[in-house]
Task: structure prediction
Amino acid sequence: LEEKKYFSARDELMKYNAADIAEIIEEITDDSEIRMTVILFRLLPKDVLVEAFSYLPSDLQVDIVNEITDKEINYIIQELDFDDKIDVLEELPANLVNKILEKTPKNERKQINTFLNYPENCAGSLMTPEYISLQKEWTVEDALEHIKEVGMDAETVYTCYVKDTGRKLIGIVSLSTLVVTDSDVKIKDIMKTEYIYEDVDRDQEEVSDDFKKYGYLAIPVVDKEHRLIGIITVDDILEVMEDEATEDIERMNGVIDFENSDKGYLDISVWHHALNRLPWLIILMIAYIFTGMIVTKFENSLSTVICLVAYMPMLMGTGGNTGSQAATLIIRGLATGEVETDDVWKILWKEFRIGIIIGVILSILNFARVIFIDGNSVMVACTVCAAMLFIVIFAKIIGSMIPLIVKKAHLDPALIANPAISSVSDAVALSIYFGMATLFLNL
Amino acid sequence: LEEKKYFSARDELMKYNAADIAEIIEEITDDSEIRMTVILFRLLPKDVLVEAFSYLPSDLQVDIVNEITDKEINYIIQELDFDDKIDVLEELPANLVNKILEKTPKNERKQINTFLNYPENCAGSLMTPEYISLQKEWTVEDALEHIKEVGMDAETVYTCYVKDTGRKLIGIVSLSTLVVTDSDVKIKDIMKTEYIYEDVDRDQEEVSDDFKKYGYLAIPVVDKEHRLIGIITVDDILEVMEDEATEDIERMNGVIDFENSDKGYLDISVWHHALNRLPWLIILMIAYIFTGMIVTKFENSLSTVICLVAYMPMLMGTGGNTGSQAATLIIRGLATGEVETDDVWKILWKEFRIGIIIGVILSILNFARVIFIDGNSVMVACTVCAAMLFIVIFAKIIGSMIPLIVKKAHLDPALIANPAISSVSDAVALSIYFGMATLFLNL
Result:
């Protein structure tokens, strides 16, 4: 490929689907210059080129746009599906966007501007205005004729929308209904008037929950006057779901994505990575000042039975992990709707019993370890084991309750990351441990 | 509702979508007896009843089946979509399944048995055999006529499949293509012969990656002879994606789901919860034996400068959290394909620099704390700060490298949970800390 065998490379590429071509182009760009990519790109037939372009990651799209002529840019942008067009324009510098908009028909320019203004992560930013609209007085034959005329992308044509004269949405008809219905039946007699729709400013996470719940391929988006302004198709929801899962996973483990972007790990700068990770680390360091105070208060007693120090890491670690386990299950349960804040007593009772089972098992194992492996006294073993039992029970309760409290306060439970759970459980663990030591060893 | 106003309750329910009705029924069951649910259920019109039934969680489905007559069970099961039918049958006890299969037509019975045998989590378990198949010699008109005759569910009709005489898949045609093409054109002239398909034993995670990548609404499933045996529709993939995300999140935080089921948090028994969480806790306890040994070895020196103990929780906690942050980003990057195992040097270099930035900032803050808040000596402050810097750098490197090594060994990186990262980083943190103490305080 590197040896200027461009044409054979092109023929090779043409065997693939546009999504695969985009992937190959991405890999080539990793290894060689952008100029190379552009040459290869220009060899592709125009329709394949546009489709492959829509599958590329946004930073590579911008790089390519910077390398090609204005005429080529215009061609690509105009040919893209409306929602892909918006995605590309959002990433381009403002002066380039203006140049492109100048060459866009006035109608569309206005629409693009409206779409560019929808805030990220809301229904408006996910939708496309490319849908089929029908009149309720039409027959099925008229409708099919109309679809044939406008002839659109597969994913947007499968549900058609019926609007009244005031552009308000009054019903929906699926293409499959049209196809199986006799051609002289009127649209108003077959349209569904009970349907699911989204408000334009609805959060994308709620939109994706609706797709999961109802299993639809597309959901209409309406404004405050119930006028149809676009539709969201399920293929865009797959991306939303992945992004939301990534966000939850990162938050739960103490990474806050300040860029809130779809940039990959390798594309985010070192400074930004540090910025995303520092807040929780600093908050925790402050929390550990209190943990330090607990230890300091007990310093003199510790120095007389110094072997107690050796069990501190294990007790804190087990407390932290056992608390995170409970928190993880509750946070995820809240996200998927399996668990609700009203279930607080059920959860408390469940975690309490789980805590006892786990605590007892770990204590027995520990008793054996302290006596037989470490050769410490029975009283030290009792201290460690009693501490272990109570630490596990309290950590389970803390870990499961904090997410519920945060949710009740109408915040995202994933924001209270596992680091927070473990710092609280560390302080609790040490207090319990030293309490037990006082009790059993008379310190 | 409780006051036997069943009919008004039914009229109220009928205003909703079947998915909403299922949700309401679920809530009612939470608060009252199953008998109540069954009474309400019987009042629903039969078609709504069947649809709502398909949206219920599987344990509630089984409960209801246990309460109703065999005739009712048969009716519901026979009317369900094929893939929902399989899902329900999988959960029912074997003798009930046999009773139901006895009353099923022989053809379908054979098919059901085949489907029940596909292992969970593979393409075969996700597919439905309800698809439209066309002949290549047909015209568009023949095809549309055929679709009208078989008239099927919306989501399965939008792509039609062309098979040869040996039942091998030779091409696909979308319904939208059929609708916009002139009626006398032959299917073989408009069908796409380059298409994406899945092998029947492909893992569901890879299938869902294909849906994300290509954005299709349905993908055909073929056997080893390339015979079409079913299709997977995108609405089932939404569930797969949510389940996979839940599994990853749980694994990363040290919960292994042995049941591997779709049961919710509240439905899993206390014993099972304990079983899911114990393995990592026990592995960690064993790992902490080594951490304990490190501390024990340093015991005598610690008792002379006992104030060092107070900083142990903070240094271990920060090391653990900073390591988990790096591990989380790499594990997630590997899952979404943003990061590959070949990127190991890039990642190492990146995390090294991030570690220095974060380490320096945290060290400076700590220096101030040790001197001004705790009133300890400059040498103690130097020990803590130098340890902090090296701990952060090493934790970042360990946290980012372990997932890559696990991936390279062809295991799931999410299996090496954050608890493992923090126990390794705890041991490293203590070794570095005591090393620094020896250096700065001549212990």
